[in-house]
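REQUEST ID: PR-0412
SUBMITTED BY: lab tech R.K.
PRIORITY: routine
TASK: structure prediction, single protein chain
INPUT:
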Amino acid sequence: MAAPAFDAAFRARFETLLAWRRDVRRFRRDPLPEGAIGRLLAAAALAPSVGHAQPWRFVHVASPDRRLALAAHVDAASGRAAQAYDPARAAAYRALKLHGLREAPSILAVFCDETPAAGHGLGIATMPEMLRYSVVMAIHTLWLAARAEGIGLGWVSILDPGPVAALLDVPADWSLVALLCLGYPECETTEPDLLTSGWQDRRPVVLVER
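STATUS: complete
OUTPUT:
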């Protein structure tokens, strides 16, 4: 089978996709089209994984009660996090919108199976964290696939993984990697909210020669 040719036009469009991939916090309430989650998960499964272990495990949070419990948990964790800042930075922190758990039409929790049968332990004897890195690759692949369909994704990380795993009733050897909000963005932009809000400027890429 001949490999496809990715020409200059494709590479330019791919760069555009990367530029427009944003961490979305403000969602419209329109439901996702039927089959969208399945397509995105199929794309995520094309990500590389250590030992081809494919350790990603997805939980679709369909229960309204669980969704509200997740939102309350994140709000409480966010309130505690604000206390670590000085007053000025705490005020800026509280002004940020940090999740769309109540508005986004779909919520996915992504876990790493720490003891997958697949892969036969290849590549994790000295770096077991490679399993979680593999899950992150799947998340990023899903993120780009979602953006290509006009679907926004927001990664919620201000939480305690233990209570979230308990709330979602997953196996004990699954570790939470991400809680994701999926839906159509209220507005589109190439700039991160945390940049436009003044929270953090872009930093130059660091390259060290040895």
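NOTES: The longest strand covers residues 174-183.
REVIEWED BY: pending
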